[in-house]
């Protein structure tokens, strides 16, 4: 296709229609501008892949195909909490996505600037994301990178799931190269970490981690090294922060290591709505929870075995030059979209591949993650955490892959739990 970008008196014009304005963000999966649709006279967001002369033709082609796949994936969805794609145009084989403009910022920016949210707000966010994912999953689309920087919160409170750049679409050829990995490790389900495959349940695990992060300010799987993150996700005791106590049954169900026992989207949404209505979160079905000690522990062991080659796997993570929706995983830090009162892009443009905490940001450029306080500490020593037994009503420790468990101090929620 010929050149479609022209220089107007007020800036670049894409496809003779979209006049670019201020840059809203830049990350591993694209640059996002506020723009004006001159035909319909409305504000939109335009996303384009960043130019990188160091990429081979094959690598550049893969990145282009990821953007087109994102556009196709989102265009198939119709849900109030999924970003709307208006148009896709190309210039000299560089695709541009034209999306609705969300006036607000990312959830990561919001938590960084205002602090963690309370339990009712976390429940509201969770309900919105679960509804969006149910719609995506019904269409055969897995997001694979649900995290705070890929969630936008409009000024009117609307929650929008965006950045489907690493989405897996049923019926499409995968664009992930052999040995590479897409997603953000701290928000990635253990079955994906161990190479056991992915499915709708993997996105739900990410929602569970996100709820922990927005309630406390950091992911429960934050560690100082990539190897530490892998070990924490796959085998360590899961110790969610104390702030999750009001919605503990939901988080506990979503962070079930056995995807077959993990809380499904419909049930998780029901529990969160019940919490908003009554202030109490009903427990999951007792029989299903009671099976954890046998099947869940066996699954954790199998996942640990699958991750035995973590050195090779970590090397693959570090070597992945694109990483789908984020930048290459080179540390446990994050680079989120820009903060500030100006309108957020329709896509987070986050370059984070491992959001070590709900990250900080600086206007106009990808920011540096806020350093988390949790290191690779021994079980029981994570400050401000609540050890949980998913098969019991008390707040004792989740078993690790080795079968060991530790008893922690109980936390009292609003319901006396």
Keywords summarizing the entry:
single chain; 417 residues; alpha+beta; 7-stranded antiparallel sheet; 3-stranded antiparallel sheet; 15% strand; disordered C terminus
Number of strands: 12
Which outline best applies?
globular
Q: Tally the helices.
A: 11
- The share of residues in helices is 25-40%
**Average predicted local confidence, pLDDT:** 72
Query: How would you classify the helix and strand content by structural class?
Result: alpha+beta
The largest pleated sheet is described as: 7 strands, antiparallel
Radius of gyration: 21 Å
Low-confidence stretches: 173-180, 287-298, 307-357, 359-383, 385-417
Distance between the termini: 62 Å
**Helix and strand pattern:** EEEEEHEEEHHEEEEHHHHHHHH
Estimate the strand proportion: 5-15%
The strand order across the widest sheet is 1-2-3-4-5-7-6
Describe this entry's structure for a reader.
The chain is an alpha+beta fold and about 425 residues long. The longest helix is centred in the first third of the chain and has 20 residues, at about 120-140. Mean pLDDT is about 70; it is low at about 175-180, about 285-300, about 305-355, about 360-385 and about 385-415. The radius of gyration is 21 Å and the shape is globular. A hairpin with a 4-residue loop joins strand 10 (about 150-155) and strand 11. The relative contact order is 0.17. A seven-stranded antiparallel beta sheet has the order 1-2-3-4-5-7-6, with helices on one face. The chain starts with a strand and ends in a 98-residue tail after the last helix. About 30% of the residues lie in helices and about 15% in strands. Helix 3 (about 120-140) packs antiparallel against helix 5 (about 200-215) and helix 3 packs antiparallel against helix 8. It is built from eleven helices and twelve strands.
């Amino acid at each position: 296709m010929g050149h479609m970008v022209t220089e107007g008196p007020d800036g670049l014009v894409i496809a003779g229609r979209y006049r670019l304005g201020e840059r809203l963000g830049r990350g591993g999966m694209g640059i996002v501008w506020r723009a004006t649709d001159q035909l319909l006279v409305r504000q939109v967001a335009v996303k384009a892949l960043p130019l990188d002369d160091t990429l081979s033709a094959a690598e550049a082609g893969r990145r282009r195909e990821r953007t087109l796949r994102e556009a196709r994936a989102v265009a198939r969805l119709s849900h109030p909490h999924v970003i709307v794609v208006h148009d896709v145009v190309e210039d000299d084989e560089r695709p541009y996505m034209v999306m609705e403009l969300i006036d607000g910022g990312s959830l990561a920016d919001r938590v960084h600037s205002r602090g963690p949210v309370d339990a009712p707000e976390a429940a509201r966010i969770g309900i919105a994301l679960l509804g969006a994912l149910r719609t995506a999953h019904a269409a055969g689309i897995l997001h694979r990178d649900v995290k705070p920087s890929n969630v936008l919160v409009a000024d009117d409170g609307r929650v929008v799931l965006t950045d489907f750049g690493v989405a897996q679409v049923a019926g499409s050829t995968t664009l992930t190269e052999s040995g590479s990995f897409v997603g953000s490790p701290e928000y990635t389900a253990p079955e994906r970490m161990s190479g056991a495959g992915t499915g709708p349940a993997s996105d739900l695990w990410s929602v569970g981690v996100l709820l922990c992060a927005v309630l406390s300010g950091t992911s429960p799987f934050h560690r100082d090294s990539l190897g530490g993150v892998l070990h924490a996700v796959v085998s360590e005791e899961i110790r969610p922060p104390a702030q999750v106590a009001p919605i503990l049954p939901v988080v506990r169900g979503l962070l079930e290591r056995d995807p077959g026992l993990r809380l499904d989207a419909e049930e998780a949404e029901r529990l969160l709505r019940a919490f908003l209505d009554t202030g109490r979160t009903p427990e999951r079905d007792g029989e299903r929870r009671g099976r954890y000690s046998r099947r869940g522990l066996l699954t954790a062991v199998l996942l640990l075995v699958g991750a035995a080659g973590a050195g090779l796997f970590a090397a693959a993570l570090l070597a992945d030059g694109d990483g789908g929706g984020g930048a290459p995983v080179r540390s446990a830090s994050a680079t989120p979209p820009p903060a500030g009162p100006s309108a957020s892009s329709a896509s987070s443009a986050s370059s984070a591949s491992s959001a070590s905490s709900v990250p900080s940001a600086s206007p106009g450029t990808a920011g540096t993650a806020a350093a988390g306080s949790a290191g690779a500490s021994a079980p029981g020593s994570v400050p401000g955490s609540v050890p949980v037994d998913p098969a019991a009503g008390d707040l004792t420790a989740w078993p690790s892959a080795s079968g060991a468990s530790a008893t922690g101090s109980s936390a009292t929620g609003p319901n006396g739990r």
